[in-house]
Design a protein that fits this description.
With 264 residues, the protein is of the alpha/beta class. The protein is built from nine helices and nine strands. Keywords: 4Fe-4S, Iron, Iron-sulfur, Metal-binding, Oxidoreductase.
Length: 264
């Protein structure tokens, strides 16, 4: 969902009002990130193509995802690809390219990128070199890295990019959801206070207690997070504080939206 939100943000800078009717190629999109992003984009009426080296698998996956996307969503297509020639055929007329494959695996070469026409947005979630798209860098944001082709790197799909409204816009599009802000939010928001899984101490526990209290004070049923550390440490805190455990649930943003899509 963060990929969809960030794509939409940059797309608007290039004259796209939304993703409706846009062709999105989800390279290596058979994993959880690719599947959820494809589902959301399909719900937004984008034409989504998922690629994989395994033809039968990707076609069956696309068929199942289309069913899960539900009524009104655009059909998701599965295409096999394992060479520059195959990838070129698939991506040349795309509006948006998402590289969401295995970390450290290059999918699209520089040679192929130089053959693409302009007016494209490319997103790569890979933080382990070689990146999914040759020439990509994790800190790119709306960066023209090939003529007329603009890049979004992995580091800009997250909090450090100062994007606060995009995930809220996604949640606000769900008609039966009431979005409630905590007292400290956006740039003033507190997190779990843990910079790595091994550094949860008495100081971070105090930060967690403060944030959990803010969440309880809203009366909300869910605390939505987009960081795996926040998800783990907030849940850990609630498990330790037994009287708070049933106050609300801490849920990952992508999982939350994904479950709603599957239930639709």
């Amino acid at each position: 969902s963060a990929i969809v939100a960030k794509t939409l943000e940059v797309a608007r800078k290039h004259g796209f009002s939304d993703l409706s009717g846009k062709k999105i190629i989800c390279l290596g999109g058979t994993g959880p990130v690719g599947q959820i992003s494809a589902l959301i984009a399909s719900k937004l009426n984008a034409k989504v193509v998922i690629t994989s080296r395994r033809e039968q698998f990707v076609k069956e996956l696309a068929k199942n995802l289309t069913k899960k996307a539900g009524r009104g969503a655009i059909k998701i297509v599965g295409e096999p690809a394992n060479s520059d020639e195959q990838y070129l055929k698939i991506v040349k007329d795309a509006d948006i390219i998402w590289s969401v494959g295995k970390a450290g695996v290059q999918i699209i070469s520089k040679k192929l990128m130089n053959q693409l026409p302009p007016k494209k947005i490319v997103v790569d979630i890979n933080l382990v070199p070689p990146y999914g798209i040759e020439g990509m860098k994790p800190d790119y944001y709306n960066t023209e890295f090939y003529p007329g082709i603009y890049a979004i790197g992995a580091l800009n799909i997250g909090r450090l990019s100062n994007v606060y409204d995009a995930p809220r816009e996604l949640l606000s599009k769900i008609p039966f959801i009431e979005l409630i802000e905590m007292e400290s939010n956006k740039k003033d928001a507190l997190c779990c206070g843990v910079s790595a899984y091994i550094s949860c101490n008495e100081y971070s526990k105090e930060i967690q207690a403060t944030r959990i209290k803010e969440a309880i004070d809203t009366g909300a049923e869910y605390l939505i997070v987009s960081c795996p550390k926040c998800l783990a440490h907030f849940n850990c805190y609630l498990n330790e504080e037994k009287e708070l455990k049933n106050k609300f649930k801490v849920v990952d943003l992508t999982s939350f939206i994904g479950k709603l899509l599957f239930l639709n």
